[in-house]
């Protein structure tokens, strides 16, 4: 029992544990839509597209999370605008915005006098650096995202899988798609602090993908994804504490192992 309780004497570990649980629930809420709609690519793109926002906030000595959030929202709106105006498929619009935003971040970074620890934490993640303010922010985002998805669940389902019918009944399909992109951006911003820009997409989709192999309804998929993500996050955090490994990467490895187990024991049709 002391193996579980000893790390809790440290405030930084307790905060990291709470953050992992909150983000796991948040990733389950949004990740289910990402997996069902085949939007894994946008999760990866968004994690890189927030880079100029992080660099910009760093150069202006502002809040890095706020900078990342602004970049995420602009990216989501940019993808939607390019898709509507050009007639290109969504994956093409994502690729254009993703590459452009990431290149902008690199150019901005070249103007930085030094590459500090604060900025590198956003590249590799640092859940042990979560502050009480970060926790309250994660809780607020979880409540807002959960409330929005609950409010538009039926409309989003119809717009996602039968957009022609959705338009016929008067649903704002484009606005619903933009809303989903913005919510994905919000989640990515929070996961970036835990595991960094390079691994954040793993938290968004791995647990939801594992849940998809076992669940046959959206509600059950979200609940199972939240459970699997929490188990993986907590287990990875404890392993990193006792094995002295990078916490973000360890969490991702545990989540990957859970997915492989779900794949091995997946339900047959």
TrEMBL record:
It is found in: Cell membrane; Membrane. The chain crosses the membrane at residues 12-34, 54-81, 93-112, 179-209, 221-241, 247-265. Pfam families: ABC-3. It is a multi-pass membrane protein. One of its GO terms (biological process) is cellular response to iron ion. Keywords: Membrane, Transmembrane, Transmembrane helix, Transport. One of its GO terms (cellular component) is ATP-binding cassette (ABC) transporter complex. The keyword Ribosomal protein does not apply. Belongs to the ABC-3 integral membrane protein family. This is Manganese/iron transport system permease protein. It comes from Deinococcus soli.
């Amino acid at each position: 029992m002391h193996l579980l309780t000893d790390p809790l004497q440290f405030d930084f570990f307790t905060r990291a544990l709470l953050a992992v649980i909150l983000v796991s629930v948040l990733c389950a809420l949004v990740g289910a839509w990402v997996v069902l709609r085949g939007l894994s690519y946008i999760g990866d793109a968004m994690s890189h597209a927030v880079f100029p926002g992080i660099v910009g906030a760093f150069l202006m000595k502002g809040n890095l999370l706020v900078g990342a959030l602004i970049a995420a929202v602009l990216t989501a709106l940019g993808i939607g605008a390019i898709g509507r105006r050009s007639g290109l498929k969504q994956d093409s619009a994502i690729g254009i915005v993703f590459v452009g935003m990431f290149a902008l971040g690199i150019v901005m970074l070249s103007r930085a006098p030094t590459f500090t620890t604060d900025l590198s934490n956003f590249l590799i993640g640092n859940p042990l650096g979560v502050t009480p303010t970060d926790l309250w922010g994660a809780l607020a985002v979880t409540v807002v995202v959960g409330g929005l998805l609950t409010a538009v669940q039926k409309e989003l389902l119809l717009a996602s899988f039968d957009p022609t019918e959705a338009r016929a009944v008067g649903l704002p399909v484009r606005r619903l798609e933009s809303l989903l992109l913005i919510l994905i951006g919000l989640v990515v911003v929070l996961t970036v602090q835990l595991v960094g820009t390079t691994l954040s997409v793993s938290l968004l989709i791995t647990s939801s993908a594992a849940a998809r192999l076992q669940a046959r309804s959206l509600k059950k998929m979200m609940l199972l994804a939240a459970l699997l993500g929490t188990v993986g996050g907590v287990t990875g955090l404890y392993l990193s504490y006792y094995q002295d490994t990078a916490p973000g990467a360890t969490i991702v490895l545990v989540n990957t192992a859970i997915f492989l187990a779900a794949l091995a024991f997946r339900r047959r049709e």
